[in-house]
């Protein structure tokens, strides 16, 4: 096997002058730098599968919302979760091994981790619509052949579909079966659960869905075949931006620019939403004659879901026995945190950026609702919650109805990871149940004006944080300067952190008014830019 790996790796040499790092969402960079990285991720996937006794590992080739010339690769663990933390560093180690010592590093990992090279290895993989995808798949397949790994190429998939398929593959034929192991099985599961969750309720008017010119476009078109028609209790969906990847659309554009994609032709008060490039993020918005553009971001989706599920749990008589909580990051709007704690009366946990952190924290609750403000999130249910939804004997028709809606939600929601298509159907279901327009949803609480700024610095890794990324510990003294700036603004809050997916710092600020939030963000950004130039 080692000879096969050596020979295959010579076709995918590592550029000598590059250092790679498994970041917030795997490896992500210019696609032309990724060939050796993807090959080596194939080696890691084989090792990981063997370590887990031949369970299937997922590999997704995507750069999500990044520009079209970027690409990336990430690994998915057997239950559809993000790759276990310690394996991120093994991936980084293997990705950075000099060409001549690759086999030695691979063998050492195999030995140190006590992996039996004879154990079968299994991998499934998919990719988004980027033009660089097929060539990177070749690098991955070369590694899988060289390591004697069985594999299935699912070709184009959304990231959450790959997570779904990974879990389905590993639970097939067991009591924990997560669904049929096919893309069709995914659509059928969502379509069927949506009908059950809607309970004959009607959505009002259309929803315009911006597919970010990513893989979500063709996959949403496919999903529509499994949903009832609008006239028969479905949703009237208008798809826009389902072409090739380009700028000025998508969830990241809408969230950071705080405006609708220019291509959107939706009327006043009509529901709109945007997916990102690999369809794991979802942002809603609408335009109101009086207030103009209104954003309904990940925080608003989390609060909507938490309040709806909380009400259902109460109606089902399960409020006492189930612990419901919300998980956010530092980017959560201060008003949303206050709303969850004070109005909904639910606990909030704050974690660093990255779904792996939020997901992990959410599993500590029976119903863990987690969303990043950028629209990446889902709801996870504990075994105890699932058992209660199925085994509780209803004492009234209202209880029976609440229980059946809860059961439907557990199938409608993709519990492996944030899933824009599933989250969109969840939001549509809740709005239909509540007979809410987007305006009514928006009125639940008023966001503090906020601004996110991207700052390019010579070396973003000089900026180190603690306290769930809310406090800078390095460069020394910068946090004190940020605190001094924040103190000058009413309701001010700001933090800076290095992005894990882009070569940049991100600065977030909120304050009592729009101009103050902008001013604070720009001042903190200028400070970081200055410090970044000093530390280079
Ligand atoms: C990825 C992660 C998200 C994270 C985002 C931005 O999303 O999955 O958890 O919020 O990157 O991360 P950062 O600020 O570290 O660049 P996506 O949709 O880009 O894969």
Question: What does this protein structure show overall?
Answer:
The chain is of the alpha/beta class and 536 residues long. The chain folds into 4 domains: 2-156, Alpha-D-Glucose-1,6-Bisphosphate, subunit A, domain 3 (Alpha-D-Glucose-1,6-Bisphosphate, Chain A, domain 3), CATH 3.40.120; 186-294, Alpha-D-Glucose-1,6-Bisphosphate, Chain A, domain 3, CATH 3.40.120.10; 298-442, Alpha-D-Glucose-1,6-Bisphosphate, subunit A, domain 3 (Alpha-D-Glucose-1,6-Bisphosphate, Chain A, domain 3, 3-Layer(aba) Sandwich); 450-535, TATA-Binding Protein (2-Layer Sandwich), CATH 3.30.310. Helix content is 41%, strand content 19%. The chain contains 18 helices and 19 strands. It has helices at 2-9, 35-51, 85-96, 102-112, 133-146, 159-171, 183-198, 216-224, 251-257, 298-315, 334-343, 355-362, 383-391, 397-412, 420-434, 438-442, 478-486, 514-535, and strands at 27-30, 56-61, 70-76, 121-127, 149-156, 207-210, 237-240, 271-275, 282-288, 292-296, 324-329, 348-351, 367-371, 377-381, 450-455, 464-466, 471-474, 493-498, 505-510. The protein has a 5-stranded mixed beta sheet, with helices on both faces. Strands 7-6-8-9-10 form a 5-stranded mixed beta sheet, with helices on both faces. A 4-stranded mixed beta sheet has the order 12-11-13-14, with helices on both faces. Helix 7 runs parallel beside helix 15 and helix 17 (478-486) packs antiparallel against helix 18 (514-535). The longest helix is centred in the last third of the chain and has 22 residues, at 514-535. It is globular, with a radius of gyration of 23 Å. The protein starts with a helix and ends with a helix. The structure holds 1,6-di-O-phosphono-alpha-D-glucopyranose (G16). Residues 24-25, 64-65, 276, 280-281, 353-355, 372, 374, 376, 499-502, 506 line the site of 1,6-di-O-phosphono-alpha-D-glucopyranose (G16). Residues 200-282, 297-436 form the Phosphoacetylglucosamine mutase AMG1 domain. Pathway: Nucleotide-sugar biosynthesis; UDP-N-acetyl-alpha-D-glucosamine biosynthesis; N-acetyl-alpha-D-glucosamine 1-phosphate from alpha-D-glucosamine 6-phosphate (route I): step 2/2.
């Amino acid at each position: 096997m080692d000879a096969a790996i050596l020979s295959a790796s010579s076709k995918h040499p590592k550029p000598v002058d590059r250092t790679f790092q498994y970041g917030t969402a795997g490896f992500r960079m210019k696609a032309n730098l990724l060939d050796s990285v993807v090959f080596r991720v194939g080696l890691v996937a084989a090792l990981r599968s063997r370590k887990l006794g031949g369970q299937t590992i997922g590999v997704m080739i995507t750069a999500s919302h990044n520009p079209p010339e970027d690409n990336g690769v990430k690994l998915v663990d057997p239950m559809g979760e993000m790759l276990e933390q310690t394996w991120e560093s093994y991936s980084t180690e293997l990705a950075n091994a000099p060409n001549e010592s690759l086999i030695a590093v691979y063998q050492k990992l195999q030995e140190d981790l006590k992996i039996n090279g004879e154990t079968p290895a299994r991998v499934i993989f998919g990719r988004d619509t980027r033009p660089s995808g097929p060539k990177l798949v070749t690098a991955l397949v070369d590694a899988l052949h060289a390591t004697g790994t069985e594999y299935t190429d699912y070709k184009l998939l959304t990231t959450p579909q790959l997570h779904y398929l990974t879990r389905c593959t590993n639970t097939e034929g067991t009591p924990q079966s997560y669904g049929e192991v096919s893309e069709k099985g995914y659509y059928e599961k969502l379509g069927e659960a949506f009908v059950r969750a809607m309970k004959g309720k009607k959505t009002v008017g259309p929803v315009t869905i911006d597919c970010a010119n990513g893989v979500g476009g063709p996959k949403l078109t496919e999903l529509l075949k499994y949903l009832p028609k609008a006239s028969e209790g479905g949703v009237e969906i208008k798809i826009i931006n389902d072409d090739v990847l380009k700028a000025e659309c998508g969830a990241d554009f809408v969230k950071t620019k705080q405006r609708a994609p220019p291509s959107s032709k939706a009327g006043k008060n009509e529901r709109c939403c945007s997916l990102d490039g690999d369809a794991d993020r979802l942002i809603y918005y609408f335009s109101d004659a009086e207030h103009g553009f209104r954003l309904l971001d990940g925080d608003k989706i989390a609060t909507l879901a938490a309040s709806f599920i909380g009400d259902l749990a109460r109606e089902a008589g399960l409020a006492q026995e189930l612990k419901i909580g919300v998980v956010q990051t530092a980017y959560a709007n201060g008003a949303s945190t206050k709303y969850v704690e004070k109005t909904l009366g639910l606990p909030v946990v704050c974690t660093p950026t990255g779904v792996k952190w939020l997901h992990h924290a959410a599993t500590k609750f029976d119903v863990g609702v987690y969303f990043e403000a950028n629209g990446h999130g889902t709801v996870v249910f504990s075994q105890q919650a699932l058992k209660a939804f199925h085994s509780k004997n209803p004492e009234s028709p209202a209880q029976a109805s609440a229980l059946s809606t809860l059961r439907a939600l557990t199938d409608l929601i993709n519990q492996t990871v944030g899933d824009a298509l599933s989250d969109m159907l969840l939001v549509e279901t809740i709005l239909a149940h509540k007979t809410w327009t987007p305006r009514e949803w928006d009125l639940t609480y008023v966001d503090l004006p906020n601004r996110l700024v991207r700052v390019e610095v010579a070396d973003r890794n000089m900026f180190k944080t603690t306290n769930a990324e809310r406090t800078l510990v390095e460069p020394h003294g910068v946090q004190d300067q940020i605190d001094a700036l924040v103190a000058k603004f009413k309701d001010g809050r700001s933090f800076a952190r290095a992005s894990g997916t882009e070569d940049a710092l991100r600065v977030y600020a909120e304050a009592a008014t729009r101009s103050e939030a902008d001013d604070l963000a720009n001042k903190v950004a200028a400070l970081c830019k200055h410090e970044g130039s000093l530390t280079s």
